């Protein structure tokens, strides 16, 4: 016998047919048949009647009953997997979206390089890129068990 749970509630004591959960079934009114120890259950009245000759009851009746609703829900237990990384993507979204670019310096660079102006929105876009790059570098540093982000953690940019 395996320990796997049966897909039914009980088996009829007469025909051995399985009685499902939340199903009507019958028990014998005689205590020696419906007691905890014996606990005869029958899928139908005919099946109940089948046991009568052998049981030699003086006076017996079939009692209609109802099997319990499906055994405790067999949903797989939810395992709470704790995030080992403090900067999981969900938390990243909550990070303050500050500008990580020094606007004046960048504007100076573009002005010197191409004599062009730079709109303020460019700082936000660049800041987002910097964040993405830093997050990856942090992951790389953590993978090596370091507490310091090194230049080589950004080597992926060269690929
Ligand atoms: Zn039966
Ligand atoms: Zn009986």
Structure description:
The protein has 159 residues and is an alpha+beta fold. The strands form 2 sheets. It has a two-stranded antiparallel sheet. The protein has a two-stranded antiparallel sheet with strand order 3-4. The chain has 5 helices and 4 strands. It has helices spanning 31-34, 45-55, 89-94, 103-114, 121-143; strands at 10-11, 18-19, 24-28, 62-66. Bound molecules: zinc ion (2 copies). One zinc ion is lined by residues 28, 30, 33, 51, 55, 57, 60.
List keywords for this structure.
2 domains; binds zinc ion; two-stranded antiparallel ribbon; Histone, subunit A; alpha+beta; single chain; two-stranded antiparallel sheet; 159 residues
Quick take:
With 159 residues, this protein is an alpha+beta fold. Helices cover 35% and strands 9% of the residues.
- How many β-strand stretches? 4
Largest beta sheet: strand ordering: 1-2
Radius of gyration: 37 Å
Mean pLDDT score: 83
Instruction: Give the overall shape, derived from the CA principal axes.
Output: rod-shaped
Largest sheet: 2 strands, antiparallel
H and E string: EEEHHEHHH
Flag low-confidence runs.
Answer: none
Q: Hey, roughly how much beta strand do the residues contain?
A: 5-15%
Percentage of residues assigned to helices: 25-40%
The name CATH uses for the topology of the largest domain is Histone, subunit A
How many discrete structural domains?
2
What is the SS-derived class? alpha+beta
Number of helices: 5
Enumerate the distinct ligands: zinc ion
